[in-house]
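Long-time lurker, first post. I've been practising inverse folding by hand and with some scripts of my own, and I keep getting stuck on stretches where the structure tokens seem ambiguous. Below is the full token string for one chain I'm working on. Before anyone asks, I'm not after the true native sequence, just a reasonable design that respects the backbone. If someone could post their per-position residues I'd love to compare against what I wrote down in my notebook.
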């Protein structure tokens, strides 16, 4: 047994190394235990040549070890040199497997059987040794690895990187950096946005995509990995691609077994050895990715054991190093020391009423706001660096209806009033302390749906979109809370009938959010079941088997619900409902929904009316299956064609009837004349089935692809559902690359044309429509090249009379429709009558 130490530090990453350096500087007896044969294993395992960032830039570094942004090799070299120069007591190849004892007399046991005595213990072990594994089946011979050491080792391979956080992005960029390696690199992101990556990495990845060096698969997950191949679930269905190697960088979770077992008591439970309640290092929740409960001085629930770094929920290097410095100061009795981010947070809280310290404000916000209850005190500090807090007097406007905005608001004290009638400010609904508002902008990107004012003096936290997405990805409890609130409000809005929040609690308790692949059914004709399905995002198509063939009945957009027939009338399912695109649905238990109907006669009546209308469609199809079968088949085929062309996610789409179109191009000319001489429409492009043509024109998707990764946040949804690009566009081209339908172009605005009358009577100007490049060049200011910007259909928002393309069509061939109105077999019934 070795002599005892004042401090034993486990893990020599940035946090542990900084702690050991501070102990050495203060002359405290210490030992730094590292399980490998080198310092800072996490950064050591970074890919060769990786640029290590020093963020956040506004945070002052407080450490005896130097650190600035630079190459991995330089950072490690500096730390090795300084650790030796500062006489840090390092013990390599010393993996700790157990900690027993109590404060002042801890015993650490290594895997080699050595024991070390210490008065205090600092856990700085990080989480990288416990990576999240791929969840899909992996076939024999398939190569899946969870780390990339040297991108230069791989030549002429098809490589898929799963995970689009910082590590995944950096791996993908490293593998695609040298064109002579001839690697084909793809990166898989399960969402449309990069919620956990740094801005610099996101911009570098998008630049690589634009240059054709990396393929980004958004809203995609892997479903199977086999030797030489990988299968994806994309928003548009299944995709199979060549794949020699998968590099999975999907984050990691704390090593709970080891940490919870520190100084724990054990008992027999169900024939197994288990940790006794209230002993060991406790975590904030049972979620796999939760973090230990810690005091403001980093002390865990076991006195004398401190936790810092990534294991404490702080993954950034500067945060970790500051914590390493601070915790040793605390252990040495310097309780007056304030964290390095204290001045930044003090400035944020300066405008709030009452005299509270930063820690008191952080705890006030954490405990009062429901979605923040599961956030650790240390995570709260990082969270507030990316958020704002404000005090609003009673009656003060928070935001107005139709304002743009994607931030989320949380109410820490007081309440706000939602103006539910846009024409009558006196009709309001309160939202109380602890809840949130603004989630519609966060989830869908739509403009604010209502005007909201402070109902009384209120303290509000405004959470930026990036901070909200990061919060949901790192704190499962926060994601669950936001999901429940947004689900409740969606149901209240959709069901109406005078329902209140308390009416829905039983329904919400059993509700389940399901992700549905494109083409996957949520209801199958002929099966049993009475659950109700609410379409949260995406869309569904309804089909019925007639004469052995599936017949398209209707299209259901987000905000619809289905499944009520068997719940009310009994029997088996009468139709199949499948996802038109990758969608999210809320499954409501039939029994709970039946109780809700019984308790609310008005809702029951509305639901019965919906059921009756759907039964009428079924009866119409059955009655016409012989005499009208050809027409039904044709309409069904057309409807399926339109869904395949992306109509399944559209809110407004331009269609052209080729039987009526005479090819005059008036639609394109009118579009150009209404939009600075640049047409947003390509009539001839696009696909045709039978007589129905889908030209290249914006579909105004329910969840627009173009909104993802817009640096100036220049893309918005207007009051009538139109997706438009404002004047802050910087011409980066991200929207053009992200749009799967090719409806966005990058171009510069041409010179102003003479009026139509000047052209008609005097021959001045290029005439109606988009001017030729030759004319634009000849009439541009010499030597001045106008910057390009993104050009797309905006549905002629603000122009009297509506879309110019429709108004200019002399034969009525061009129509703009909402898919839910057009894609229904009920149109046949109306047309026949």
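-- Answer (accepted) --
I ran through it position by position. Result:
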């Amino acid at each position: 047994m070795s002599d005892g130490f004042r401090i034993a530090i486990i893990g020599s990453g940035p946090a542990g190394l900084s702690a050991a350096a501070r102990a050495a500087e203060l002359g405290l007896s210490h030992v730094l235990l590292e399980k490998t044969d080198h310092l800072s294993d996490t950064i050591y395992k970074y890919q060769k040549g990786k640029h290590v960032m020093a963020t956040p830039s506004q945070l002052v570094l407080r450490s005896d070890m130097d650190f600035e942004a630079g190459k991995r090799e330089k950072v490690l070299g500096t730390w090795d040199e300084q650790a030796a120069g500062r006489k840090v007591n390092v013990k390599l190849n010393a993996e700790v497997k157990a900690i027993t004892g109590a404060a002042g007399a801890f015993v650490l046991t290594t895997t080699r059987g050595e024991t070390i005595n210490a008065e205090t213990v600092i856990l700085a072990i990080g989480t990288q040794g416990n990576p999240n594994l791929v969840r899909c089946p992996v076939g024999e011979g398939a190569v899946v690895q969870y780390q990339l050491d040297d991108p230069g080792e791989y030549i002429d391979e098809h490589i898929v990187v799963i995970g689009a956080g910082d590590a995944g992005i950096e791996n993908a960029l490293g593998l695609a950096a040298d064109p002579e390696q001839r690697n084909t690199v793809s990166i898989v992101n399960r969402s449309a946005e990069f919620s956990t990556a740094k801005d610099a990495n996101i911009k570098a990845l998008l630049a690589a995509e634009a240059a054709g060096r990396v393929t980004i698969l958004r809203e995609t997950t892997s479903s199977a990995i086999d030797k030489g191949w990988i299968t994806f679930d994309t928003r548009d269905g299944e995709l199979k691609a060549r794949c020699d190697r998968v590099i999975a960088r999907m984050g990691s979770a704390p090593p709970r077994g080891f940490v919870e077992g520190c100084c724990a008591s054990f008992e027999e439970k169900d024939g197994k050895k288990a940790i006794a309640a209230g002993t060991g290092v406790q975590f904030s929740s049972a979620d796999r990715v939760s973090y230990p409960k810690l005091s403001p001085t980093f002390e865990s629930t076991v006195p004398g054991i401190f936790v810092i770094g990534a294991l404490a929920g702080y993954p950034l290097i500067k945060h970790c190093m500051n914590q390493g410095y601070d915790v040793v100061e605390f252990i040495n009795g310097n309780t007056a020391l304030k964290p390095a981010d204290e001045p930044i947070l003090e400035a944020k809280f300066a405008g709030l009423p009452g005299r509270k310290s930063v820690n008191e404000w952080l705890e006030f916000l954490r405990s009062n706001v429901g979605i923040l209850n599961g956030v650790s005190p240390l995570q709260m500090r990082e969270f507030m660096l990316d958020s704002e807090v404000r005090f609003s007097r009673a009656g003060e406007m928070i935001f107005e209806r139709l304002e743009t905005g994607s931030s989320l608001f949380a109410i820490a004290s007081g309440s706000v009033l939602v103006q539910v009638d846009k024409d009558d400010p006196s009709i309001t609904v309160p939202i109380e302390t602890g809840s949130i508002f603004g989630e519609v902008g966060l989830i869908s990107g739509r403009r604010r749906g209502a005007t909201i004012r402070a109902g009384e003096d209120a303290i509000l936290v405004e959470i930026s979109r990036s901070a909200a997405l990061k919060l949901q990805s790192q704190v499962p409890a926060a994601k669950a809370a936001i999901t429940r609130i947004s689900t409740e409000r969606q149901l209240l809005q959709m069901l109406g009938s005078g329902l209140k929040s308390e009416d829905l609690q039983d329904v919400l308790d059993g509700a389940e959010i399901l992700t549905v692949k494109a083409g996957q059914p949520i209801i199958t004709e002929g099966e049993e079941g009475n659950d109700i399905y609410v379409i949260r995002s995406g869309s569904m198509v309804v089909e019925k088997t007639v004469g052995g063939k599936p017949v398209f009945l209707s299209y259901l957009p987000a905000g619809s619900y289905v499944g009520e027939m068997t719940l009310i009338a009994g029997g088996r399912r009468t139709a199949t409902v499948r996802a038109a695109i990758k969608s999210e649905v809320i499954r409501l238990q039939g029994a709970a929904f039946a109780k809700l109907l019984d308790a609310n006669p008005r809702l029951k009546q509305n639901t019965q009316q919906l059921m009756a209308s759907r039964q009428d469609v079924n009866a119409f199809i059955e009655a016409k299956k012989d005499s009208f079968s050809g027409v039904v088949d044709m309409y069904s085929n057309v409807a399926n064609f339109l869904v395949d062309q992306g109509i399944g996610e559209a809110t407004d789409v331009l269609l052209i009837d080729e039987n009526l179109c005479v090819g005059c191009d008036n639609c394109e000319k009118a579009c150009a004349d209404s939009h600075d001489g640049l047409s947003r429409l390509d009539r001839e492009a696009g696909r045709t089935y039978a007589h129905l043509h889908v030209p290249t024109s914006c579909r105004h998707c329910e969840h627009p692809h173009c909104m993802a990764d817009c640096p100036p946040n220049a893309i918005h949804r207007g009051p009538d559902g139109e997706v438009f690009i404002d004047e802050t566009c910087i011409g980066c081209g991200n929207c053009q690359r992200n749009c799967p339908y090719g409806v966005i172009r990058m171009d510069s605005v041409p010179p102003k044309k003479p009026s139509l009358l000047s052209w008609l009577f005097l021959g001045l100007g290029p005439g109606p429509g988009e001017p030729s490049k030759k004319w634009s060049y000849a009439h541009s200011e010499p030597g001045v090249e106008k910057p390009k910007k993104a050009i797309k259909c905006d549905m002629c928002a603000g122009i009297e009379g509506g879309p110019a393309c429709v108004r200019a069509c002399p034969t009525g061939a061009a129509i703009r429709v909402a898919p839910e109105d057009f894609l229904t077999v009920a149109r046949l019934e109306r047309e026949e009558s």
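A couple of notes from the structure itself: The radius of gyration is 31 Å. Residues 5-129+255-340 form a domain with the FAD/NAD(P)-binding domain fold (CATH 3.50.50.60). Happy to go over any region you disagree with.
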